[in-house]
Amino acid sequence: MHRARVVLQASSKIGNSERFASWLIKNPQAVAMTINANRLKSSTAAEPFLNGSSSAYVETMYNNWLTDPNSVHASWDAFFRNATNGAQPGVAYTPPPNLAPYAKNEVPLTSLIPASGGMPSIASGSPINEKIIDDHLAVQAIIRSYQSRGHLVANLDPLGITTGDPVSSGDWHGGLRAFANEAVIRQHVRFDEADMDRVFKLPSTTFIGEKEKALPLREILNRLEQAYCNNIGIEFMFINSLEQCNWIRQRMEPPNVTKMSNDQKRLILARLSRSAGFENFLAKKWSSEKRFGLEGCEILIPAMKQVIDTSTKLGVESIIMGMPHRGRLNVLANVCRKPLHQLFTQFAGLEAEDDGSGDVKYHLGTYIERLNRVTNKNIRLAVCANPSHLEAVDPVVQGKTRAEQFYRGDNEGKKVMSILLHGDAAFAGQGVVFETMHLSDLPAYTTHGTIHIVANNQIGFTTDPRHSRSSAYCTDVARVVNAPIFHVNSDNPEAVMHVCNVAAEWRATFHKDVVIDIVSYRRNGHNEVDEPMFTQPLMYQKIRKTKPVLEIYADRLIKEGVVTAEEVKDVKDKYEKICEDAYNQAKQETHIKYKDWLDSPWSGFFEGKDPLKMSPTGVVEETLVHIGKRFSSPPPNAAEFEIHKGLLRILKARMEMVEKRTVDWALAEAMAFGSLLKEGIHVRLSGEDVERGTFSHRHHVLHHQKVDKATYCALAHLYPDQAPYTVCNSSLSEYGVLGFEVGYSVTNPNALVLWEAQFGDFNNVAQCIIDQFISSGQAKWVRQSGIVLLQPHGMEGMGPEHSSARLERFLQMSADDPDYMPPESPDYEVRQLHDCNWIVANCSTPASLFHILRRQIALPFRKPLILMTPKSLLRHPECKSSFDEMAEGTTFKRVLPEEGPASENPDKVRKVAFCSGRVYYDLLKERRDRGLEKDIAIVRLEQISPFPYDQLKSEISKYPNAQLVWSQEEHKNMGSWSYVEPRFRTLLRNQKQIRRKTQGGGWFSQLFGGSDAPQTDTQTETIPRIISYNGRATAASPATGSKAAHNKELKNLLDEFCVL
Ligand SMILES: Cc1ncc(C[n+]2csc(CCOP(=O)(O)OP(=O)(O)O)c2C)c(N)n1
Ligand SMILES: [Mg+2]
């Protein structure tokens, strides 16, 4: 195993002549002690009794005292207190009159003080005391060494192979464990055989003694060996909580902790039998189909069931799971108990009865509510659908779990929990694992502990661990959140079950993450048609000689007399019959149904709804005024709550807008949120720095200037019966946090869930979530989501990385056919929305923002909304809307027509510029500055996709003599152009335009040339109507880094816009 390399590196540092105890003290990092030698030296180095080995001893005492003052003798406690309080050398120690008798391995300080304690000292070289101290120290050090590093030599690998052999320098060498064991744990301890029967008091940091306070050294070593170096290896000593460390020691150290009753053993065997039986059945029926079987890690199924049983007993009612391909079908069949015939129909290549393009069978999700037979309690199990992208589902599962906890009011995660399954290579390799781990303890993102299970088959596709990670274990990422890590040999089912029980109890007790690393192997190739001998010949020779765990365990239980061979066969035959019956039933099916694979059905949401009827998005003025005033006011206890002066000015300006019945961007957003909250819709806005807003415009959370953590959020206090509002600054992660919010959004359709990118550019770090979940989730998994992505976007001279949210990418992924214009109908808008995969918009007014956000909830279905959002427009004096545009009866306008002078005399208009977003304000100003308001009409697309053909059609026909241009600020290969151009072409198909015949010169200058309408056929010609491009040239980088170049590009764009 890869970890052996690390073992040997560690062991090689220990010189032969050095005593183990001294080595440990000199190498504090090796024993994970919290040594702060400098602090110790500074306050106590001048003490007369500190020299040689005594100072090492004192150092140990000091560290113990730092961790827990009660762990050292009271005299030491008094000494360290005095010393750290600045007592002069020699006076820090004052013998207290009645010190308690020392316990266990504690040595009183008096034994080290030359005269004052009246005892012989180490300093004076007394051989008796030196030996006592050294022996105690050595025993303590050994115990600690096992606790910290026993896992390095535990027997975890069912294949018994290790890497990094120092003898032959080959990679494959059996039997390293015995060597490593000695080297790492106790080779350098000086006890000889005669010492083995000496009895030692046990320190308070071990539970190997159970009720015994002292044990012979031989027994101490045996028990430590059993607890830490057998089939379970535990990493936990890095945890910064003594309570938690002791909790683990208590559950892992006492002898026989892994012992199971005969009933429990029979249950494990039965579950193992089903797990293996399922894979065997699939292999028999569909030998050449990919299924990513579990062979070699069949114990995963009993393990998951054990985690679920124990968690259910401890109060959990709903479990949300995320997992990769490996063993997924088995999990659906044997953990979730998805009807087998439904699983088998997936192999039949049938067509789907419902909409969608579907997904391969080992990516589909499911949702089951059933009775847990072991606990007799009802339980809901969901496995989230996921893409091939390994680990991408992790944050999605967490978001879904958090949402379910939130809606149930399960604030401590007692009822709802998540289980994440991982492959060894993916767990170590994928950064989103780290990003997800870092959400685990954040107030607005925690799910109060996740149980991670790694199906560690010691290989990733064809790559060995030594080439796929630099860490000793594939699980090292979990150390960052102080999660205990249990490595366990998959060939010892009872050890696996014990670890599962402890992990479930850990989660229920501390509500923190925990990892179970099931060290196993992969009996076949990566999938069933792969040949593993091409790349791992030696490993697979070994695997071929390795008995399946079912056989090993059945033999063991038969030998123990727990079951008979007949019973084993009977269980196996019965399950095979169940599979065979389901197989026959599946053969009767003619179609598959994607909705059978939904991971969280929205019961009641669609029922009784007209699928094409949208609720109004305008609201009564009274509501706008109420929200506006609250949002513009300090907290009710304003007198005590000191607000920053700058914020008082902002609030005042907001209030003035409310009085004038206008809104800016921030106020419109608040009114959209507030009015939804009033209607009982939960709103959650998450992302980096969203509480204030990257551009300091939002200020949803006000901070008391004198009191830490005293905050006020007006939107959470609008109405007494409103829905809850959550606004939360996230960790600095896009992939993890967007994934989380997607998961949150699919849990309940009656919530507006928004994720804001700091700048739109950064969404590419979350591209996998965008591609695999948001744009295609419904098509693949019938999984709707109304998530909103707020993407600051705009060419404002801020350089390549703070300009573009890559609008073009979102538009390219819009699935509407550019060559097809849907037939006109009264419900055109909603019909288009129903059929699209997502909505992409670049709104130019606060009112549009207000309506489009509210429309997310007004729709009778859910669609993701990708919204380009402004930066400078947040403060642009013209970017304001009136209450009149948001009041009752108003709606979202997909297209904002020209309303100025050009619209009054449309026949005379010579150019119509279509645009979207902030460039409108640049065009507006330029047109005004050049006095072209009668000549050029500007039409805005507030929604780009789905393409508003119907409204654009009437805008185009309104200006029959005008040339048409698409004006955009983005480069030509970016922005909307590639999306709108073919759609305009479809719209303009068969439309003709009459223009004056060319007499030389450019196309633009020939168009009517400002004169009256053409007079004779010889002067004019009829040409197809087209739209041309007005904007920046193509580019590789989204924006220039030079302000001068930016301004020049903008000038060119505007000059061209004005050419008639
Ligand atoms: C993000 C990502 N990159 C690459 C792949 C291709 N791939 C599929 S399985 C696999 C190996 C996974 O190894 P491991 O995580 O150990 O799981 P195992 O297959 O061994 O169970 C790879 C590289 C993928 N699915 N996702
Ligand atoms: Mg693997």
Explain what the structure shows:
38% of the residues lie in helices and 13% in strands. It is built from 36 helices and 30 strands. It has an 8-stranded mixed beta sheet, with helices on both faces. Strands 17-14-18-19-21-20-26 form a 7-stranded mixed beta sheet, with helices on both faces. Helix 1 packs across helix 7, helix 14 packs across helix 25 and helix 16 packs across helix 25. The protein is globular and about 115 Å long. The termini are far apart. The N terminus is likely disordered. Bound molecules: thiamine diphosphate and magnesium ion.
Beta percentage is 5-15%
Question: Care to count the β-strands?
Answer: 30
| C-alpha geometry | globular
Low-confidence stretches: 1-53, 95-125, 163-179, 1000-1015
Ligands bound, unique: thiamine diphosphate, magnesium ion
Largest sheet: 8 strands, mixed
- State the helix count: 36
| Overall SS class | alpha/beta
Radius of gyration: 35 Å
Residues in helix, %: 25-40%
End-to-end separation in angstroms reads 74 Å
